[in-house]
């Protein structure tokens, strides 16, 4: 049966609820499921716990959920690009659980693999480890981190087939693969959607077994958080010929 739905709103209409945990792929504004994020905003669902590497920027990406007042808690590794996020956090209006980036990726991967928890050295002796069980292995101290399993996961892929097999491209390969496996229900948006059998199995990153619903991503400009390139230098004048 095809997993393809008519649009983002239709794919999410019966799975969103207040107070749920939502895991979202991407990195800032790179490789984010923008259509699905906007559908969450438009649904009006609230008191969300959002798991993502960061919360985008003001007015874009996951920033639209912060702007709409729909988020209660964020589990992320970085929040520096979103001013409203910082304001709400400092005002005590938003709960934030900071997690080192590699630990966050592994918590999501573990959730998808059915591993309830794991030990890591990252964060030992810092605020990250406060209140968490510690254990010693081979003379070194490790902190116990719980896996993350989301009620709904949202991801963005470049190419998919209607069975839900996904191929990512460029920076969309960041958190999307681990987020895709960590959802009880995972909804993917893809820029190109083909029929089953048209994808090279060697190129598939996320097998369709992890994807419950699929939507066609809209053709939109892919935003950049901070454009830092320099103006292109003018071509140098050709050197004058050396006299014989």
UniProtKB/TrEMBL annotation:
Family matches, as InterPro entries? 3-oxoacid_CoA-transf_A (IPR012792), CoA_trans_fam_I (IPR004165), CoA_transf_BS (IPR004163), NagB/RpiA_transferase-like (IPR037171)
From the Swiss-Prot or TrEMBL record, give the protein name.
3-oxoacid CoA-transferase subunit A
Record's SMART domains?
A: CoA_trans
Mind listing the UniProt keywords for this protein, alphabetically? Transferase
Q: Which GO terms describe its molecular function?
A: succinyl-CoA:3-oxo-acid CoA-transferase activity
Transferase found in the keyword field? yes
Q: What class of enzyme is it?
A: transferase
């Amino acid at each position: 049966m095809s997993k393809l739905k008519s649009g983002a709103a239709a794919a999410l209409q019966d799975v969103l609820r207040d107070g749920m945990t939502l895991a979202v792929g991407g990195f800032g504004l790179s490789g984010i499921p923008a259509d699905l994020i906007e559908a969450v905003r438009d649904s009006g669902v609230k008191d969300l716990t959002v798991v993502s590497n960061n919360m985008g920027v003001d007015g874009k990406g996951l920033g639209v959920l912060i702007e709409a007042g729909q988020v209660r808690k964020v589990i992320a590794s970085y929040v520096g690009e979103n001013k409203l996020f910082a304001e709400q956090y400092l005002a005590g209006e938003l709960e934030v659980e900071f997690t080192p980036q590699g630990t966050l990726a592994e918590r999501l991967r573990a959730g998808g693999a059915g591993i309830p928890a794991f030990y890591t050295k990252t964060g030992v002796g810092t605020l990250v480890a406060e209140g968490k069980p510690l254990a010693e292995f081979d003379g070194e101290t490790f902190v116990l981190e719980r896996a993350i399993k989301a009620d709904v996961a949202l991801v963005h892929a470049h190419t998919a087939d209607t069975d839900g097999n996904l191929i990512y491209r460029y920076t969309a390969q960041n958190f999307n693969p681990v987020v895709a496996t960590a959802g009880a229900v995972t909804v993917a948006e893809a820029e190109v959607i083909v029929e089953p059998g048209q994808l090279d199995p060697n190129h598939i990153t996320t097998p369709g077994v992890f994807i419950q619903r699929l939507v066609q991503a809209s053709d939109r400009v892919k935003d950049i958080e901070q454009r830092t390139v320099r103006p292109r230098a003018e071509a140098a004048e050709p050197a004058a010929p050396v006299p014989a």
